[in-house]
Amino acid sequence: MFELKDLKDLQVSVVPHSLEVTGATRGMSQYEVTIDIGVQKKIDGDPDTAVETLGSLVDEIADFLRKRILAATPWAVWSGITNDPVYVPEHLTDQRVFTSVLSVSYKMVR
């Protein structure tokens, strides 16, 4: 978690979110790994402009990751992205901070 003073500069955090293991075959399991990417920045000026600009950055990150093969784990297959919350209204109104979270999921059978 960042202090408000640290959010003067754009902060992008990447953290593991979840791991789900299910049966794929008798001898193999399917793994679904989800990673959260948080985007935060203290807003100066017009909040609507900042939300539009930072929201576009979040969209660019999602577009970059969509269907991308990961070099370190080529057996991991991209399975989806959610953007929830698109942004946190309470952070924007109470602290003038844009906060958005992308959750990116990959599936692997091993």
3D shape: elongated
The chain-level structural class is alpha+beta
**Integer tally of domains:** 1
Radius of gyration: 17 Å
> Which fold name is given in CATH as the topology?
STM4215-like
Distance between the termini: 34 Å
Kindly estimate the percentage of residues that lie in beta strands according to DSSP: 35-45%
Structure commentary:
By secondary structure, the protein is α+β, with helices and mostly antiparallel strands. It has a single domain, classed as 2-Layer Sandwich (STM4215-like), CATH 3.30.2000. The chain contains 2 helices and 4 strands. It has a 4-stranded antiparallel sheet, sandwiched between helices. Strand 1 (11-23) and strand 2 (29-42) form a beta hairpin.
Keywords:
single chain; about 110 residues; alpha+beta; STM4215-like; four-stranded antiparallel β-sheet
SSE layout and pairing:
Layout (H helix, E strand, L loop, with lengths): L10 E13 L5 E14 L4 H19 L11 E7 L5 H7 L1 E13 L1
Antiparallel strand pairs: 1-2, 2-4, 3-4
Entry summary:
The protein has two helices and four strands. It is an alpha+beta fold and 110 residues long.
